Amino acid sequence: MQPDNKMTGAKLVLRKCWQRSDRILRKGMTKTEKHLYEFGPYRIDAVERLLLRGGEAIPLTPKAADTLLALVTNSGRVLDKDELRKIVWPDTFVEEGALARNISALRKALGDDIEGSQYIETIPKRGYRFVAPVKDLSAFTQMQPDGDTQTSPRNGMRWAAGLIAVALLILAAGLTYSRFIRPSQTAPVDIASLAVLPLDNPSNDAAQEYFADGMTEELINSLAKIEALRVISRTSAMTYKGVKNKPLPRIARELNVDAIVEGSVLQSGNRVRITVQLFEGKTERQLWAQNYEQDLRDVLALQGEVASAIAREIRIQVSPKEKQRLAQSRRVNPEAYLAYSYGRYCWNKRTPEDFQRGLEYFQRAIAKDPSYAPAYAGLADAYALLGSIGSDVRPPNEVMPKAKRAALEAVKLDDNLAEGHTSLAYVRLSYDWDLAAAEHEFKRAIDLNPDGAPLVCALFPRQSSTRTGAD
Hints:
- The chain is built from 18 helices and 13 strands.
- With about 475 residues, it is an alpha+beta fold.
- The chain folds into four domains: about 5-30 and about 145-180; about 30-140, Orthogonal Bundle (Arc Repressor Mutant, subunit A), CATH 1.10.10.10; about 195-325, ABC-type transport auxiliary lipoprotein component (Rossmann fold); about 335-470, Tetratricopeptide repeat domain (Serine Threonine Protein Phosphatase 5, Tetratricopeptide repeat, Alpha Horseshoe), CATH 1.25.40.
- The two termini are about 45 Å apart.
C-alpha cells in the first residue's frame, strides 16, 4: 500500500460528503421527470426502469426492462430481432438466445401466454410485437428523500452541516495519521507464481458472461508470456468461477501460488473497463489495485498493459523480448473480437453442439476481419475437435484438412500467436502423423507462451495427456 493512501482516502471521503451535502440541500427544490407507460393493469417507469402492478414492483433484470420498454414504445409495430437486439444492447455483441430469454422472462412476469398473447406477440422468423393498447403518461414530481416525507430546506441544511463536520474530522484524523503515527512500510513480498481468478461480470447481464471469461483467458495468456512467472492455467482457474465463499488464502493453497489476481470487466458500447486487484495469497493482503478503461479496438493493448503493471508490482524479472511481446498489439475490429470471444466461450464448453456453434462464430469473426489471426486458430480448433476421437461428429477426412488450412492461415497472419502454433501442432500430430513437425510447432508455441504446456492440455486434453504419458 502506498504511504499516502490514508490521506487520499480521507480526501475522497471529504469530497463524497461534500457532494452528498450538496445533493441534500437541493432536495425539495428540484423537480425530476417521470415518464410512465400504462397497459392493462401494468405501468412501466421509463426513467427508473421499473414495472409496477397496483403500486407493487415486479422484479425484472435491467435488460429485460429495456426489452419491455423497447416493445412498449413501439406498440403495434413489429420489431425485428436484430433491431430489438440493437436497441437493448447498443454496439454490444450478445448471443442469439439472450433476446429469447428476455422475452420468456417478460411473459412470465406479465402472466402472458405464448399461444394467446395479451401483450407480446411472436412474429415467426421476424421478431416481436407489443399488441396491448398503451397509454403514454408523463408527470413531474418533487424529489423525495429516503423517507416518506419531503426534506425541508432547514432539515437539509442540518444534514449537510453534519456531513461536512464528519468529513472534516476524518480529514483531521488522516492528517494526524500521516504526520505522526504512520506505520513503516511493509516489506516487499516475494511472488513467483499467481492465479487469475475468473473476472466478474458486474453488468448482471448473463449475455455478457462470455466477454468476462474471454478477458480472463486473455489476461492469463498475457501473463504467461513472462517466463519467470508461473501462471495457473485457465482450466484450473475457471473451476473457481462463481465461488464466493472460499477465502483467498485457501484458494492460494489449493493452487499452490504466492498471489491471486481478482477483478471485474465491463463492456459497454465500444468501451472496456477493467478493475484489477492483486492479493498476497497467504494473508489476503491487497498489494495493488487499478482501474483501466480503453476503446474496445485497443483491447489487446489493454491486456498487455494490465499484465505489465502486475509484473512491475510483483517485481518479477521480465526480459526485453518479453516486454516487447507484451507491448505488441494491433487494433481489432470490435465485432470480430466479440464474435471470436463468444466462439471461444462456446468452444470451451466442450460439447459437439457448442463446437459447432463456436465454429459459426469464428466464421463470423473472419467475415468481419479476414486478417484476424486468433479467429483462424479458433476455427482450426473447432474443426479439429469435431473430427477427433471422442467427438466423432464429422468425418476426420472432411474436417481435418479444413483445420489444417485454418491453422496455417493463423500462423501466416501472426507468427507470434501461440494459439496458432498449438492448433497447427495438433493437426500435424493427430492427422498428418508428422511427429517432427508437431514437435517443432509445440516448441514454438511454448517459446511464445512459457506456460504453454497447460495451454496444450487445455485445448486438447485427451491427445496431450496421451502424448505426455508416452514422453
